[in-house]
Structure formats: C-alpha cells, structure tokens
Amino acid sequence: MANEIITLETPAQRLQLVPRLGGGVAAWDWKSEAGWTPLFRPWDRASEDRYTLACFPLVPWSNRITAGGFDFDGVHYPVRPNRAGEPYPIHGDGWLQPWRVTRHEADSVTLELESRGYDGNPYHYRSRQRYTLLPDGLAIELAVTHLGDRPLPYGLGLHPYFMRNEATRLRARSDGVWLSGADPIPVAHSSVLPPGWDYNRPAPLDGPMIDNCFSGWDGVARIDYPDRGLSIIMRMQDSPGYTLMYRPPGLNFFCLEPITHPIDAFHMPGQPGLVPLITGQDMALHTRFAIGTSENVSVVSR
Fold first, then answer.
1. How many domains, in total, are found in the chain?
2. Backbone angles phi, psi at 120, to 5 degrees
3. Per-residue pLDDT, 34
4. pLDDT class for 1, splitting at 50, 70, 90?
5. Contacts for 254 with CB less than 8 Å, ≥ 6 apart
6. What's the predicted TM-score (pTM) here?
7. Do the domain assignments include residue 209?
8. Whether the Cβ atoms of residue 235 and residue 255 lie closer than 8 Å to each other
9. Which end of the chain is more exposed for a tag (fewer CB within 10 A), N or C?
10. Which residues, 6+ apart, have CB-to-CB distance to 295 below 8 Å?
11. For 52, phi and psi rounded to 5 degrees?
C-alpha cells in the first residue's frame, strides 16, 4: 500500500502527514521569500523507519521500559522489545501502527487509532491526534482513552526532529538531569548539569551525545535560527516538568521531546509522571509550536 500523504497548506505554512506510518509528520515547512523552509527535519520518503519522519506520537508510553515489562496493582505485565537493535521496548506502540483520518478540514486533520494488545502489549486504548495550522504555527493534541478492563499506567509524548547547524541556539530551562551508564537507562539524578548540557540560557547544539531526560522543565523551549531569521517556541500545556533531549553528534538535527514522564518511570519509586487510567478515562498532551521571524519575533516572545 502506498504511503498516502495528507497535506494542509496556508499561504505561510505547509504540513504533511503520513497516517499509515504511525500517524506521523512527513514535513512541516514555512514559506519565506526564498521558498519553503523546513521547520522539522523532513522525511526522506525513502524509508518506512519512523525514525526518519519529521515527528511521531508516543503512546501509551514514552521512551524505554526495562526488565521485560512492568508491575502494576500487583500484576506483572510483559512488554517485548519493538525495534531492531534496541534491547528495550521503546516509545509505546502507536508509532508502529497505521492511523485513520477521521476528519479533514481546511486547517486541521484528526487521526485516530484503536490498539488492542499490539504485539502482545497489555494495552487496549483509543488514541487521537489533532493537527491544526495556526496563523503563527502548529498545534498538536495527542489524547488517549483506556479501553481495557483493568487500570493501567499511561504516558504520552511527541518526538519532533528539529533542524540544527552551528548557528542554532536552544533555551530550555531545567533543574537537573537523569544520568545513565552504558545505555540510556537512568542510574542517578543530578542537579548539576554536565558541561555543555546547560540550556537554561541560549546555547549551541554541538557536543557529544545526549539521550537523557531533564527535570524541572517549565514547558517552554525556544530554538533560534539567526542565519534563517527564524525562531520556534515549543510550549507544552500543563507540563509535569520533563523533557527528553536527543542530541546525536555530527548530524543536522536534534530532538527535544515534550513528555509526561521520565525514561523507565515504570521502575522508579511512585512511577513519576505516569497516569493510571480506568476504563473510559483519558489523558491528553497539548503542544504548540509557534514561529517567529525577524518581522514578528514578538509573537513567540510573549
């Protein structure tokens, strides 16, 4: 089956979605005098690997789960690895399934997925993504409703890939970070940020690998592209204080993920950030990406 692309376009923006590939984003572009400029790193359209998309949803959990699954209310729930070369199940299972378009309007598209025991997972849920082009940017709503008989803990997130080069600057406040050992699983939390990891003030995006969750995030991140006369402000409504950065060395992108819980929260005391849902209960993640240019930078500064 061909990967149909759904397009929303205004005079200033263009959003392209690939419902069959996890309901992900193929491209989000801004119209300038020079033509279309990518805001997310665009999908190369040569691979169905979701890691080559511009953005994809994280549901019903974010990042990795260790120990082959998790315990909740005295029951052990096994969860299998779901990506080649990755020893842990990662990013839930919504990103691996096709979504269906349930509403397509001039400025918005709604995608839905019902997932029941995908690949042996314990989750039965319905999820909805609503993408809306705003006059100054993009809004993404990701929601999930628990359909299973037993309560289960849920988490949500988005996995956007932002462009970067030597001129790019990021500001995202935090009060600490979970450090890891030989793999990205947290082993300790530190209130002292390693050298080159402090984005409480605008800082460049070069340096060694970061694949870690930061604490104390206020839900606002600003990315400045002075060479393009452009800025992006990412705002997560009602942020619980977590964001995950993926900063691979030597590549032209980085990820800053709005998430509801830290890595492997299933095995942390109190399962921080995870939300237990009973049948019919839901939770949602609201994220807005506002664009500022040299002419309207005040739009994203408020």
1. 1
2. 85, 0
3. 84
4. very low
5. 161, 162, 164, 170, 205, 245, 246, 247, 248
6. 0.95
7. no
8. no
9. N
10. none
11. -95, 0
